[in-house]
Amino acid sequence: MKWVLKCSIWREGDWYVSHCKDLEIASQGETVEEAQTNLEEAIRLFLEVASYTEVMEYLSRFDPVTSPEIQKQPKVRIKSTHQESQRMMCEVALDYA
Length: 97
Known about the structure:
Layout: E1 2-12, E2 15-20, E3 25-29, H1 32-49, H2 52-59, E4 75-84, E5 87-95
Antiparallel strand pairs: 1-2, 1-5, 2-3, 4-5
């Protein structure tokens, strides 16, 4: 099962902030690439330590979830999709394959 969630990256002062609104997770970095990598890691860590109930709560908003699908750690990938004003829009793919 695969979920694609929206995120964005923007500059605030000397830092780039990365944010996945769907999971309510944010990170930052000195470059866009670092902010993106740090957000991937933050999402991986969240999914590693979150309870079954928390993961079900978040992912069920997008598609029905069955328990075998979330018993293992997913692959987390972020890819840029387009630019909106001062924000780079991205997609976070959670792949439980």
